[in-house]
Amino acid sequence: MTKVAVLHTSFVFVTVEPAINDLLAELLPDAEVIHFVDSDVLSQVGRDRGITEASTNRMVHLAQAAEAAGADIIFNACSSLGPTMDTAKQVVHTPIVKIDDAMALKAASTGKEVGVLATVPTTLDPTSNLVLAKAAELGREVHIHQRLTEGAFQVLMGGDRDAHDSMVSKEAAKLAKEVDVIVLAQASMARLAPRLSEETGLPVLASPRMGVTDLAERVRAMGDA
Prior knowledge:
Pfam families: Asp_Glu_race. It comes from Intrasporangium calvum. With 225 residues, the protein is α/β, with parallel strands linked by helices. The chain contains eleven helices and eight strands. It has two domains: 113 residues, Rossmann fold; 106 residues, Rossmann fold (3-Layer(aba) Sandwich), CATH 3.40.50.1860. The strands form two sheets. Strands 2-1-3-4 form a four-stranded parallel β-sheet, sandwiched between helices. The protein has a four-stranded parallel β-sheet with strand order 6-5-7-8, with helices on both faces.
């Protein structure tokens, strides 16, 4: 049985919002899934106004703990701390998959004007930079348009899902005038992808299903090796 370690920066996706767990159960039903959580590191990124050596070290330690626990593959579920996995890959030998890898590749290959929509500021630059990196790998030039729906995440955490959705929808409508594909920078926004695509008439990409599908394909490839 393949052991999949999932790295989190919030207990929300372990205990409250089951989207990632549901996808793992659907797409990797035979895997043993173990979770590793640092519930304060995202706050540190906010306090430091970006990823620092200290926050990188904390995520690397999570990856090291996952490897020590016997994980066959590590899945980083946090978009904001995605860049820290580039450092982790230099330290651990266990394969690492970022939740946004597949989404960023799809965005980079789909449009030249790419909108990155977020409700938490810490996800804007990591997601944008990942799309640019994938575009460079493909030999394509893309332009990034960042938009932050300020206050929406706090509204969602306060329990008002409808108000959150309305705020994101309005921001997406404005962004759609400038781009030809929209990337949702957080897993908490993923369920809005079909609605926003219908409202804007544009492709709207979200990471969780694409990311876990990518993970499942990597796991299958490991089994075939």
